[in-house]
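Just curious: can you write whichever protein you like plus the matching C-alpha cells?

***
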Amino acid sequence: MNQYLTIQLTPSELIKIIEEAVYKAVKQIENETPVAKNETLLSLKETALLLGISPQTARTYTKKLILKGYRIGNLVKYRRRYKMSSQALRRYAENL
C-alpha cells in the first residue's frame, strides 16, 4: 500500500524546490551529451547530404541507433564525425 506524506510549503519554497530539480536535470543532461561547446552540429538534411542518403533514411538510421542524433529542443542534430560511405552505411544497416 502506498503511503503519502502531505507537507505545507509556501509558494517561494515550492519554486525553490522546482528550480533546484530543473537545475540538476539540466546539468545531468549536459554531462551525458558528449558534444564539445565549439563543435558544429549538422542538421538532418546536411547529414543526409554528407552521407549521400535521403533525409528519411537518415531519420530511420537515427531511430535504429545507427546514427547518433543529439536532441536540442525539438530538433535533432548530428556530429560531423561520420565519414563512412553511404554504401558501407547501408551494408551495416542491412546486417543488423
Notes: Helices lie at 11-32, 44-51, 55-63, 86-94. Strands lie at 69-72, 75-78. Residues 7 and 14 are 11 Å apart (CA to CA). The radius of gyration is 20 Å.
